[in-house]
Design a protein that fits this description.
By secondary structure, the protein is an alpha+beta fold. It folds into four domains: 95 residues, Rossmann fold (3-Layer(aba) Sandwich), CATH 3.40.50; 67 residues, 2-Layer Sandwich (Dna Ligase, domain 1); 135 residues, 2-Layer Sandwich (D-amino Acid Aminotransferase, Chain A, domain 1); 78 residues, Phosphoribosylglycinamide synthetase, C-terminal domain (Glycinamide Ribonucleotide Synthetase, Chain A, domain 4), CATH 3.90.600.10. The chain is built from 14 helices and 23 strands. The strands form six sheets. Strands 3-2-1-4-5 form a five-stranded parallel beta sheet, with helices on both faces. The chain has a five-stranded antiparallel beta sheet with strand order 12-15-18-23-20. Strands 6-9-7-8 form a four-stranded antiparallel beta sheet, sandwiched between helices. Helix 7 crosses helix 10. The protein is globular, with a radius of gyration of 21 Å. The two termini are 40 Å apart. Bound molecules: adenosine monophosphate and glycine (GLY). The site of adenosine monophosphate has 16 residues, from strand 7, strand 8, strand 9 and strand 17.
Length: 439
């Protein structure tokens, strides 16, 4: 059991991780680097504010200085920057993939390649290095499918490099905008339709243990309108995805991908996030991430009924319990409840979030029973809090079912305010009709 854990990152997902790990038996200290003012206020958390999470040598130095027995890397950028590689080289247990393994997220073309070799279905796709051929292909794809086309930056874009387009003209405009913004190669995909699900597993390079499934809401506005964002709200469990469905997803998606990554000499240790879409033709993988989702982590972690630290340490050492005998035994114990999170975002998010707006109502929201995870807040000299990022807070309600959880989250969102605060009012409001995974 790890007693001192270094959590790298400082957003809402890392707040949830520090909150969960810091409350586990045997844990003496969580070091949050760079953390945030709000993370530092959690019990047993100590903050190293000045740390640059993209500097592998600096992370190794902090891990050594604080004698961390386990390092958990939250965001994708430090993974892509090779922070896990440096920790592995230094002999420090790290839960989070090497840069080579994190390519499953940092290059969408690479993810398609791995999925194809692993026999995992994804949307039809092609990659382009220049606008002309990309536009011609997107027009062709849009007219072939009749349901639009999706344009994606190949590399990391914090969920904002994706344009879901209704027709070829919209795709052409998106392609030009992305190339002009220097997005690099673009992936053009067939547009799939159906409810989405995030199934995230704890992986040790070979074995996988699923966390409860969650559903993110990626568009900015109610009714799934507006631009894609990093995520505007989430809930767990999913009424249209049973535990058996999740087992089948791990068996047919996570494990084949782990096997293919190991075969390539880049085994994946960390949270493997499968972004899925449940279409009428069956289940498709939309994307892989090399980490927990944000805001999915904020609704999943409060549902876990057992400590996470020992499992992450075992996975970091490549020693999760064997899973081929009985898949059901590989599910984590989960509380018999539901949780639902609403993201409160700054004025101007996602294009140009405004900072420095004074936040009120946090105490009232907590008193109403919500968990409040901070992503972009800062303590002012006067002791108040102000906005300091695009996604500012995630308020999470818990209850005996999703409707009860939603009531708490909605109430908390109504109690908090700042100038220009944006949030969706329909997270979990139209719970999807069952589709049945794996068909
Ligand atoms: P990604 O970063 O690849 O997951 O894309 C972000 C979001 O864009 C997904 O969660 C979907 O809502 C949407 N999206 C991505 N690819 C597709 C696709 N091929 N068809 C329909 N929607 C998609
Ligand atoms: N919420 C989606 C993500 O973290 O990528």
């Amino acid at each position: 059991m790890p007693t001192r854990i270094l959590v790298v990152g400082g957003g809402g997902r890392e707040h949830a991780l520090a909150w969960k790990l810091g409350a586990e038996p045997g844990v003496n200290e969580i070091v949050a680097a760079p953390g945030s003012d709000a993370i530092a206020a959690e019990p047993r958390v100590r903050r190293v504010a000045g740390l640059n999470p993209l500097d592998p040598a600096a992370v190794v130095a902090i891990a050594r200085e604080r004698a961390a027995e386990l390092v958990v890397i939250g965001p994708e950028a430090p993974l892509a920057a090779g922070v896990a590689d440096a920790l592995v080289d230094a002999g420090i247990a790290v839960f989070g993939p090497t840069a080579a393994a994190a390519r499953i997220e940092s290059s969408k073309a690479f993810c398609h390649d791995v999925a194809e070799a692993a026999g995992v279905p994804m949307a039809r796709s092609a990659t382009f290095a220049s606008a002309g051929p990309a536009i011609a292909h997107a027009r062709e794809e849009a007219s072939r499918s009749g349901s639009g086309v999706v344009v994606k930056a190949d590399g990391l874009a914090a969920g904002k490099g994706v344009a879901v387009c209704n027709d070829g003209d919209a795709a052409a405009a998106a392609i030009e905008t992305l190339f002009r913004a220097g997005a690099g190669p673009l992936v053009i995909e067939e547009r799939l339709r159906g409810p989405e699900a995030s199934v995230i597993a704890i992986c040790d390079g070979q074995r996988a243990i699923a966390l409860p499934a969650a559903r993110d809401h990626k568009r900015l506005l109610d009714g799934d309108a507006g631009p894609n964002t990093g995520g505007m709200g989430a809930y767990s469990p999913l009424p249209d995805l049973t535990n058996e469905d999740v087992d089948r997803i791990v068996a047919t998606i996570h494990r084949p991908i782990l096997a293919e990554m190991a075969r390539r000499g880049t085994p994946f240790r960390g949270f493997l996030y499968a972004g899925l879409i449940l279409t009428e033709r069956g289940l498709y993988l939309l994307e892989c991430n090399a980490r927990l989702g944000d805001p999915e982590a904020q609704v999943i972690l409060p549902r876990l009924a057992s400590p996470l630290g020992p499992l992450l340490l075992a996975a970091a050492r490549g020693r999760l319990p064997d899973d081929d005998a009985d898949t059901a035994a590989q599910r984590l114990p989960v509380l018999p409840n539901a949780s639902l999170g609403i993201v409160l975002a700054a004025a101007g998010y996602p294009e140009a979030p405004r900072r420095g707006d004074a936040i009120t109502g946090l105490g009232e929201a907590s008193a109403a029973g919500a968990l409040v995870f901070h992503a972009g807040t800062k303590r002012t000299d006067g002791g108040g809090l102000e906005t300091d990022g695009g996604r500012v807070l995630t308020v999470v309600g818990r209850g005996h079912d999703l409707a009860a959880a939603r009531d708490v989250a909605e109430q908390a969102a109504d109690l908090i305010s700042w100038t220009g605060m944006q949030h969706r009012h329909d997270i979990g409001a139209t719970l999807q009709a069952p589709v049945g995974a794996g068909r």
